[in-house]
Design a protein that fits this description.
This protein is an alpha/beta fold. It has nine helices and eight strands.
């Protein structure tokens, strides 16, 4: 059974779509890319933002980094808390901690923002560590973030069978696979139909409460 449980943030612990989408819209407009309806921007939730700006809008790397700065301009001011915790998450975290599980967050959101969000919603005490990219290019991929968590928790190769990643996007699955740990999908998050299955995820929770059946 798993001892170390790594959680994605956006789409797994919190419903962050309103804030992320509004900040992406702000960044695209400031970048001269026009306006887009909310539903077209859902793919931005989860992957690293510079990657999404390049893939979605055909931006160059420099343009994507400029758009990221626009995004952060609004996110730090207001977008961070245009967010809500999914029903059942606090109870799940409490149950896992009572079962002596060690919990961590591995997110593509900058670590500083993730920590502030978790503190704001009173989730921070459940987690032993929170890892995410820095503002200067540190930990650019989800695999890097997951690897950082494993290092902080001193999980060596022979202990990786006791670790699992919980996330809603293919990036979570790919990152887990590259670090040789298990993955369980958050089917209630922002993945497109079939995305998790195509990424090799065989266990998928339809709602947060369903994770307990895989973890206890």
């Amino acid at each position: 059974m798993y001892k170390y449980i790594l959680f994605d943030l956006d789409g797994t612990l919190t419903d962050s779509a309103p804030g992320i989408i509004r900040c992406v819209q702000y960044a695209l407009e400031k970048s001269g890319k026009g306006s887009y309806p909310d539903h077209e921007l859902l793919p931005f939730i989860g992957p690293p933002l510079t990657e999404s700006f390049q893939n979605f809008c055909g931006m160059s790397e420099d343009e994507a980094h400029a758009a990221l700065e626009y995004y952060r301009e609004r996110f730090a001011r207001v977008g961070m808390f245009e967010n809500s915790v999914y029903d059942g998450i606090p109870q799940l975290l409490q149950t896992l901690r009572q079962a002596d599980k060690i919990l961590a967050v591995a997110t593509s959101k900058p670590q500083l923002y993730a920590e502030k969000i978790l503190e704001h919603y009173k989730l921070a005490p459940y987690f032993t560590t929170v890892a995410g990219p820095g503002f200067n290019g540190e930990l650019p991929t989800k695999a890097d973030v997951i690897g950082e968590v494993l290092q902080r928790l001193h999980i060596e190769s022979d202990a990786k069978t006791a670790a699992v990643m919980l996330g809603d996007r293919e990036h979570d699955a790919i990152g887990a696979q590259q670090n040789d740990i298990a993955i369980i999908g958050a089917g209630y998050g922002y993945s497109s139909p079939g995305e998790l299955t195509a990424a090799g995820v065989s266990q998928i929770a339809a709602k947060p409460q369903d994770f307990a059946g895989f973890l206890l």
